[in-house]
Specification:
about 230 residues
Length: about 230
């Protein structure tokens, strides 16, 4: 199955798109995606391939995809886990544990954003969430993004406490990808309960990174945006 998936992905490769992705995902020397490789396969095509094979593919073959240096192999592997997690609830613990074991391979923002809420967030919804706090306090950029993005599933279920607590841990982080992620999740909280979001903003809007703040207040009225942007 691993070979079939690789062949299907190879049929969809686009060299010009691969070149674009090298720049878009910051794969140059010293950048956060340094060393990543691309085929140039679109996300919809990867989803179609994952949907085609997820019922039969073994976890050993998913692991082989996640171990690959090629970005689309890893992303398709994560889509496979998403579909398996949704359709085979009896296997969710195994899927979650496989996902967590592979955090070293889930090493760009799109890989995290497409799967952390669906697998990690959903699995931990009614379980101990201490791992997310451990990740939030990590020095690893991707673990920090996993910690806040996983709470997206909690927000969808009107549970905001962990998002707010993890946002407090990350509020002074230095990396732009964390600024954007935290601001995005605060905005999602605000869609459900603006008072909860504003309670956070009233404490931190004068000191939090401007990118984080701009993402958080994107849906506010102009008057309210101007209020929060004033230091």
């Amino acid at each position: 199955m691993f070979t079939k998936i690789k062949e299907d992905l190879l049929k969809q490769q686009r060299p010009s798109k691969a070149e674009f992705h090298l720049r878009f995902f910051k794969c140059g020397k010293g950048e956060y995606g340094e060393g990543d490789q691309f085929l140039g396969v679109s996300v919809p095509d990867q989803r179609k391939i994952a949907k085609k094979y997820f019922k039969e593919v073994s976890y050993e073959d998913v692991q082989r995809l996640l171990d690959s240096k090629i970005h689309e192999h890893r992303l398709t592997g994560l889509f496979l886990l998403n579909y398996k997690f949704e359709k085979f609830p009896e296997e969710r613990k195994k899927i979650y544990e496989l996902w967590i074991k592979n955090t070293k391979n889930i090493n760009n923002w799109d890989l995290i954003d497409c799967s952390a809420p669906n697998v990690v967030g959903e699995y931990l919804l009614d379980k101990d969430k201490s791992l997310l706090y451990e990740f939030a306090k990590s020095s690893n950029l991707w673990k920090k993004r996993i910690s806040i993005l996983s709470t997206f599933r909690f927000i969808k279920n009107n549970r905001f406490n962990d998002t707010i607590k993890i946002a407090e841990i990350l509020v002074n982080d230095k990396h732009d990808l964390i600024h954007k992620a935290v601001g995005w999740m605060l905005r999602e909280v605000g869609k459900k309960d603006q008072a909860v979001e504003e309670a956070f903003l009233k404490r931190y809007h004068k000191t939090m990174p401007r990118t984080m703040l701009r993402y958080a207040i994107e849906r506010f009225s102009q008057e309210k945006r101007e209020y929060y942007m004033k230091k």
